[in-house]
Amino acid sequence: MRQKMRALMLVAPLLIFVVVTFIVPILSMLFRSVENEIVPNTIPGTVVALSEWDGSTGQPPHEDVYRNLYIDLFKAEEAKQHTRLGTRLNYEQTGVSSLFRTTGRSLDDIGELWQDPLEAIDPNFEEGSFWFEMMSGTGGEGFLEQRRELMAAMSDENMSGDVGFVPSAEIIEMLPWTARAYTDFALWAAIRDGDTVAEEDPWESVYGALGMDLTNPDTVSAINSYNGAGASALQAAAANIDQLPDFGFREAFTQEDEDWGNAEVWATIKLYSPSMTPGYFLNSVDMSLTPDGVKMKPDNQQIYTTLFTRTLVMALIITGSCILLGYPVAWLLANLPMRTASILMILVLLPFWTSLLVRTSAWKVLLQQQGVINEILVWLGFVDDADRLILMNNATGTVIAMTHILLPFMILPLYSVMKTIPPSYQRAAKSLGATNWTAFWRVYFPQSVPGIGAGSILVFILAIGYYITPEIVGGTDGVFISNRIAYHISSSLNWGLAAALGSILLVVVLGLYWCYDKIVGIDNVKLGG
Amino acid sequence: MQLIKTLTASTAMLVVATGAAYADDHMASDMTLVSWGGAYQNSQIKAYAEPYMEMNPGVSITWDESSNEAVAKLRAMNEANNVTWDLVDVVAADAMRLCDEGLAMEIDPDEVLADAPDGTSAEDDFGDLLVSDCFIPQIVYSTTFGYREDMVPAGTPAPTDICALFDTETYPGMRSLEKRPINNMEWALLCDGVAKDEVYSVLETEEGQQRALDKLATIKDSVIWWSAGADTPQLLADGEVFMGSTYNGRLFSAIVEQDQPIAMLWDAQVFDLDGWIIPAGLPEDRLNRVLDFVKFATDTQRLADQAKYISYGPARFSSAPLVGKHAELGIDMAPHMPTDPENAKNTFLYNYEFWADYRDDIDAKFQAWLAQ
Amino acid sequence: MNEVISYVRRPELMTFTMPLVALLGAMFGFITGNIFGSPWIGFVLGAAVGAALAFVFSKIVKMKSKQKTLATAVVFGVVGLVFGGLGGLFGGFLVGISMGWFANWVGSGRYRAGVPIYYTPGQVLWHNAFLFICAFVFFFLIAPLLPVVWLSFNAENFFTFTPEMLSFKAEGYSLKHYRDFLGTDEWMVPLKNSLIIAPIATLISVSLGTLAAIGLSQSHVPGRQAMMAVLISPMIVPLIISATGMFFFYAPLGNWLELQLGLNQAFVGYVKVILAHAVLGIPFVIITVTATLVGFDKSLTRAAANMGANPVTTFFKVQMPLILPGVISGGLFAFITSFDEVVVVLFVGSARQQTLPWQMYTGLREQISPTILAAATILVSVSILLLLTVELLRRRSERLRGMSPG
């Protein structure tokens, strides 16, 4: 028991180190493949309102959805989050990105449709202090906290702190839209901008929200019997509803961009409103989640299954050619006298120690059409100058260069296994009358299988994760799935898709690792020494 | 457990010792500038950074050659709340993306940037080039073609038309094009008979996209796709390709500075801009330092000076007349600028808005097409 | 190969040596003839020259075989110079060396030197063919490094063999890329960074990894397979995924170190890259050290304990010297992992921690310049030295273990 504890104590520091600095970060990265919180976080009200909409009718959703969208988008625009949402949804439906971007720019204009007439009805509405007085009160602490949480989730910022404003419970009940818009404004002004709420002019969305409230007859009658702060201004507004725009927010939005009336856009938003989505995984196997269910992508957009198969097939070819080239060399090294073997070993280790980038560029110099190999062949007259061999910017280039780069990873484990095979077995077999071939094939080879296994698994795993070499010499049909992962991480910024592709790749590798462990045992992997 | 203690202690000591050795390295007034590396970054160092450091001996500048991944890295830094960059050089499309996402700071050109020597306000001096609220333009560059003069078949006139790209019979040999749809799709449509101002409306439709891909398919077998700016000049120098697209400054360097047998094909060159953005949310002291630098680095003289080292057009109107001779070779730089009237006879304007929307979609199709 | 027998019989000249050398000559003749457009004339001429060479060699007994080979090479080289200029000289010299060596090797019967006397001709042929295959693989491994060394002396800023280089004119060559590498901060700072980061990362992976491997090697450790899988995982996860995952872990960690502990930004940057690289190196240490420990004789530690040594003394005085080769070899793998790593450092590092591979990567992308090749050449030379050192160390450790080097 004490022994066990001691052993565990020895392993523990490293185990903790690897788990904390590697396993946890990787898992959290992979979690992005299903995570979709940006939609419910950025437009929470819209998502809730939209859940009641039936997309199959082909009709755009109810006015309520547009009102929520306006309130949600306005604060998202302040936090510059609406374009991120647009980018996210653009992965699923082309054009949503600009829809959100252009609408984001005109949200103020939409609010002003209500702001201008309201200020004309009662100039008090121009005053920040007036609004503050009207909206403040008691009993709205719970409401404030609720908006604060939503705001924090949306902006991904710490929104804690004193706002210097508590909405009045009475107003919340009487003017629900206005209360939401104003509380959002107050939170943003006080915490994010560090201003005093009472001194700031409210957002345009607050006026729009008041317009929403005033369309409700119950609200109008409540205003008429209201006698708190700002009662006279509100009553004046209620009495002059006819001066406010006679259309709703659906129309306001569709006037800015007709796509807002497109049921398809809304169906996409609804489809991607849960905080988890299988969408990225479906995308990474060339399928997509559409309002009509899971479908294959059109033929001209299918790419990932091709790439996965290609990656696996090419990794197999590379592993195969490494075995073919590595086996004889490892055998030679294992059977030569130590001193000669060590010197030859340097020839194996030297390329291994040369920067990967340098070796890849060396292959470029060798393989290209005006490269060394082609030049020599042309000079010798074996290849016509006009049709030189195409050795790179295709799968051939990737296979050649990667075989070279990974060959030491095959030779070293093979060598260390072969080193342990006693030559006497083979000799015994021969003295019993076996031919050279039989002695090798029936006696020696089976004993070297663990080495082949170790080398293969190493080469195969390393090969499917490579991307720099295929990027440089692979052209179009020699690139791997890792190239796409790298592309989505650094260029298209579709990290969810990258994580999904990576997860699939990782599952494949882990599956292989598991098989290998079952068949050969991971303890048998040896590198040199 | 003596052993673990000893090992941990010695490791910790080593780490701390190294830390101490580097502790004084980080001066209070250090700025990290992000750029593209290579000749372009060099021109920035020569034209702005060195004179600035001479004037402000306390300031030191660290260059990070990460502009290629700037958007991804800035987004990640922002998500992790750890923005280590002070000023980032990006192309206009990336600046817009960063601005949209709130990753770059919005600036008021008149307040932040210097006026022209004649008193014209910065906003007027940069004019239309201020394509985004966050963007401080430095240069106008173009993506255009270079071809090997010695590979033009005997008796054939040198190519003057962009559509030589698709004419593999008259001009045999490989071509190199960038491994992305942007620019290539436009050129394909132009050479498929689409009028210049209709390119983007055609490209909006499925049929138009297919049409562009079909046109590209006619030369697919003779294209080497590049992804790094240095590729085309290298391929041209090797004689690997007959013609290839790249940034005009790279071609200038290969032709004039490296003396390669390459010539420019300016037809249908695609103008684009490159400039600075300031990351959003910098602390006060760093922000002030950066603003001071930016004001200096983008004034009329500095932008004109940059053109001594690289053949990109200065983004200010007032800088254009000051463009002089190459710093080492002493040749006139003006005829090598993409904006020179002789070169800009037929230019193509890149539509940022269109690509912001269609990038993902068309890229998926383009990549699938490449993989077929 | 203990059954090497030194008795060598000289083969028949007419029926064996001459035809074989003639065959090789015919092959070279075919290739050479091809250059001038008439391969078959070359074939016949080559065969004749080969046969003559074999005949002449067998008649001259006084010269040493090396001298014969050299003489052949010189003659062929001069002929090549006459017909094909400088390239011909070079090609002729190579062909001459091969032909001379081959004629000697076959003619003197040394081709049987490596095989038992009782081997049939077929087996001898296979044995020698096998050696040629191995030689080809070694050539495949090393050959790509040669243009790297050659091009690093290019006078131009491209990765291209210029006509001046091919005709060996002095103006085609220059040391400017070496000056660029050794003389500018652009390269020296990354080199310095690499030399700070790689050793410390290696030290961490080696110290923690060796301890863990010792722990894992003890019998009946619970959950051994699972722990092994976790420790090996950094090698298994595709690098690009590790890189992004680590970025999101290290950025907040860096913030915390800077803001809460008040550490300086540059220092924290190094810590991040070092830790990331240490993790990547761990699987190599675990694998090599575990492998060494499999062959470790446990009775030695028990004997030490019996004699009153405490565990720490036992470890340093008994266990450590014996598993040292495994530790060193694991350490070398870990070192090279860090020293050649570009993907993770691109994400985790910032400009101040720019390492050599990072600089090479941006160099390749933004300005293809042979400076990278100069850097590589210097590094290759350094690694040859290092490998030789390791080899010497290994021989020493074998002496310590009481094994005699073969």
TrEMBL record, chain B:
Signal peptide interval: 1-23
Keywords carried by this UniProt record: Signal
Name of the protein: Spermidine/putrescine ABC transporter substrate-binding protein
Pfam hit, one: SBP_bac_8
Gene3D superfamilies linked to this entry: Periplasmic binding protein-like II
UniProt KW Signal keyword: yes
InterPro entries: SBP
TrEMBL record, chain C:
Membrane topology recorded in Swiss-Prot or TrEMBL: Multi-pass membrane protein
InterPro entries attached to this UniProt entry: MetI-like, MetI-like_sf
Any GO BP: transmembrane transport
Alphabetical UniProt keywords: Cell inner membrane, Cell membrane, Membrane, Transmembrane, Transmembrane helix, Transport
Gene3D superfamilies linked to this entry: MetI-like (1.10.3720.10)
GO CC terms in record: plasma membrane
Localization, UniProt: Cell inner membrane; Cell membrane
Stretches that traverse the bilayer: 12-31, 37-57, 69-86, 92-108, 129-153, 195-216, 228-253, 273-296, 322-348, 368-393
Pfam families: BPD_transp_1 (PF00528)
Domain ABC transmembrane type-1, residue spans: 191-390
Keyword Membrane appears in the UniProt entry: yes
Family according to the record: Belongs to the binding-protein-dependent transport system permease family.
Name of the featured protein: Polyamine ABC transporter permease
Species: Thalassospira profundimaris
